[in-house]
Design a protein that fits this description.
Structural class: alpha+beta
Number of strands: 14
Number of helices: 24
Strand order of the largest sheet: 5-4-3-2-1-8-7-6
Number of domains: 6
Shape: globular
Helix content: 55-70%
Length: about 725
């Protein structure tokens, strides 16, 4: 029986490898031919479906042949994969999707199917109203909201970009609209596939939990074997990072001290009264991806745009994401100036391109991000963002105005009216005269003006100072990179087998983690005080909280194993680096409400944690290669490193699968579609398949290097998923 089983294993492995290749080719094909063509020609092609069926059949045959060795969690995983596959088939063969065109007050009972022809609805749908909601004070669209009447319901159904309509298993979500008030809804009808898929998802996650709890599982055996070995660590792989900033020889702006005086005034920003410093940091980060620029503070950048516009409009400060956007602007690098946005007639070319795109165009997110950067400057110059003048109305309610707003003349003296309208002009005049002392006085007197008119609602001086401290100590990428490098350094020191000094290395690692725990806790508490709510609602906030948890866990578990201590330092650095991708908070520009979904935030955090653990395994394999190359007695250490990597791969695969499932559920709740074959989705699935293989094979102790070579190559799937898709393949998940 051994020979047939071996042949079956090889055949199944070949089928799985073929699936990986087909999916990878599909992402490249989608880049050149579009999503719909890739789905029809590759993902849903009969040959691909048959390939999936053969692979599932091969896995099933192996399960049945080795049923005596299977434990409960193994049967659960096999059943879950089978259910997910069946659910996907049901969606593909019994599910229906298409496009529904609605004109105002005209009932419709049919929609155009994606596979051709008109499909009937068991009810009629009528468009009552449609509204393009914009961000306050701008023409930038915030959401697209339609109210439709379904004949079988008495109340209208609201459909928007973040809220689908749902009736009798028919899901409707916003796709496009026209100037005459007509809209286009995408329709999805999948009563069976979604139910089966969800059961498979739940069973798969439960199987991992059962496996982790099973004392006889391979994971628990490996955990017991590696948890007591202090020598099972990673290798040093680090370089040097230059922290020096470029010499400040750029555009003109205010001196740092004077700009700081401006930052000490109040502003109403994101419906919250805060220091101008907070607004300036968000403003600067939105433009260039950092809270400083070429040695200028955020307040200096803001002052530069306000008072030295001609200098700054030529400065390549805008960090443009998206190759197509950069190509359209004619950029050689990733930076653009304000002039690069404009054509010969002074029109915003990015905004014009965005207006011509359909709502479901995959390029829309990149062009929208660039357009928001441009609109930041427009909003600043037209005064929309500068709500720095508080005034009371007849009922003593306080409203905040900019110098360009229509002021309540009846409740305003002529002196106050002129002060508001001429305030920036006075500042500009003093700047021309280079009278910075008087300008400092003007900023100080303006703060007095604000306290006079809004003293009751202004934050206390203590809270104001807290926010300034928070702004200063908020972590940046250098801190994350230094933490990663220190983690690698200490792990490399340990793997080198240097006994002398190992105690002090451990003590230093403990001190760093203790400092990080206190530091992150202070950040968490400060943000809680300043925001007024528990800061766990955004990606940046959840990542900081996750970093805090990792630091505390590492300190608690580090007494048992150095791998927990030093590894925690490394993982914390990765989490902080991921947090930096979310930027600073509060965000400068509004985002779609759907992007604030807790499911989306958990989805991102879980997958980032999986990537961090997979990075552990990759560095571990590099350590094994170096041991093999430079040590005579290498086998024992390489075997221990293999066991350590296998121990980490189990939870990393769980987090990766959980992240994919959570993202799928969130997409289904939001857009009525749990899987769209987007390149990021496909490569995440490829990564899960690639890392599942070594966990279900019995690696020969005589050839441990085969495992490490596999893990080294497998990490390429992570790099492609995280970086390659963003930079090369694009899609809805692309943000680089």
């Amino acid at each position: 029986m051994k020979f047939p089983v071996k042949i079956l294993k090889i055949a199944t492995a070949v089928l799985v490898a073929a699936l990986v290749v087909v999916m990878a080719v599909g992402t490249v094909y989608e880049r050149t031919h579009g999503s719909e063509s890739a789905i029809a020609a590759i993902y849903h092609h009969p040959a691909t479906v048959i390939l999936w069926m053969l692979a599932i059949a091969g896995v099933t045959a192996l399960v049945l042949m080795e049923r005596r060795q299977m434990r409960l969690w193994g049967w659960m995983q096999w059943a879950s994969v089978l259910l997910i596959f069946i659910g996907a088939l049901l969606t593909n063969f019994t599910g229906e999707s298409g496009t529904l065109h609605l004109r105002p007050h005209q009932p419709v009972a049919q929609y155009a199917g994606d596979r051709g022809g008109q499909l009937d609805l068991p009810f009629t749908v009528t468009l009552d109203t449609f509204e393009v909601q914009t961000y306050p004070g701008t023409m930038a669209p915030m959401d697209f909201v339609a109210k439709v009447h379904i004949s079988e319901l008495s109340d209208p159904v609201v459909i928007s970009m973040n809220h689908i309509g749902n009736h009798k298993n028919y899901r409707f979500y916003m796709s496009d609209y026209t100037k005459d008030g007509s809209i286009e809804l995408l329709v999805s009808h999948d009563p069976w596939g979604i139910t089966v898929i969800y059961i498979g998802f739940a069973l798969l996650l439960l199987s991992f939990i059962v496996m982790f709890c099973d004392p006889e599982s391979r994971f628990r055996t490996l955990w017991r074997r590696t948890a007591v070995r202090a020598s099972v660590l990673l290798i040093l792989l680090c370089g040097t990072v230059s922290m020096a900033q470029a010499k400040n020889d750029g555009p003109r702006t205010l001196p740092k001290e004077t700009a700081a005086k401006m930052g000490d005034t109040y502003i109403l920003y994101q419906n919250r009264i805060c220091p101008v410093q907070s607004f300036a940091r968000d403003f600067t980060y939105k433009l260039c991806g950092s809270t400083s620029y070429k040695g200028y503070t955020a307040e200096q950048v803001l002052a530069g745009w306000l008072f030295y516009f001609d200098d700054w409009k030529k400065e390549p400060i805008f960090k443009i994401k998206g190759e197509e956007v950069r190509n359209m602007m004619g950029l050689e690098g990733k930076r653009a100036s304000l002039d690069d946005f404009l054509n010969d007639y002074g029109e915003n070319t990015i905004g014009m391109m965005l207006d011509s795109m359909k709502m479901n165009d995959p390029r829309r997110s990149q062009f929208s991000a660039a357009n928001k950067q441009y609109m930041q400057i427009v909003s600043l110059l037209n005064g929309t963002l500068l709500k720095v003048f508080p005034l009371k109305d007849e009922s003593d309610a306080i409203s905040w105005y900019s110098h360009t707003d229509k002021l309540p003349i009846d409740n305003l003296s002529e002196e106050e009216y002129l002060y508001i309208k001429k305030h920036l002009s006075l500042c500009q005049e003093l700047i021309v005269q280079n009278d910075m002392d008087m300008l400092n006085t003007v900023f100080e007197k303006h703060r007095v003006f604000q306290k006079k008119h809004a003293g009751d609602v202004l934050p206390s001086d203590a809270k104001f100072k807290m926010e300034k401290v928070y702004n200063i100590i908020t972590p940046g990428r250098p801190m994350a990179i230094c933490t990663i490098l220190l983690g690698l350094l200490f792990l490399g020191y340990a793997v080198a087998g240097v006994e002398r000094g190992s105690v002090w290395v451990r003590r230093v690692s403990e001190c760093i983690l203790l400092f990080a725990s206190v530091y992150l806790l202070v950040l968490f508490v400060l943000r809680w005080i300043l925001s007024g709510y528990i800061p766990l609602t955004g990606g940046y906030e959840t990542m900081l909280f996750l970093a805090l948890c990792v630091a505390v866990f590492s300190l608690l578990g580090g007494r048992r194993s150095p791998i927990v201590l030093h590894g925690g330092l490394l993982i914390m650095g990765f989490v902080l680096l991921a947090a930096m991708m979310e930027g600073v908070r509060p965000p400068v520009s509004h985002t779609m409400p759907v992007l604030k979904s807790p499911l989306l935030l958990i989805h991102v955090a879980v997958i980032m944690f999986a990537y961090a653990l997979l990075a552990f395994a990759w560095v571990n394999s590099v350590a094994a290669l170096l041991n093999r190359a430079f040590r005579k007695e290498w086998r024992a250490s390489v075997l221990r490193l293999r066991d350590a990597s296998l121990t980490m791969l189990y939870p990393s695969l769980f987090f990766l699968v959980a992240g994919i499932i959570i993202g799928s559920v969130w997409a289904n709740i939001t857009w009525g579609n749990y899987w769209s074959w987007d390149p990021k989705e496909v490569w995440a699935l490829i990564t899960a398949v690639v890392y599942a293989i070594p966990l279900y094979l019995r690696w020969d102790d005589k050839r441990p290097m085969l495992f490490h070579l596999y893990v080294l190559l497998a990490f390429l799937s992570v790099l492609i998923t995280y970086f390659g898709v963003n930079m090369l393949l694009g899609g809805m998940h692309s943000y680089a």
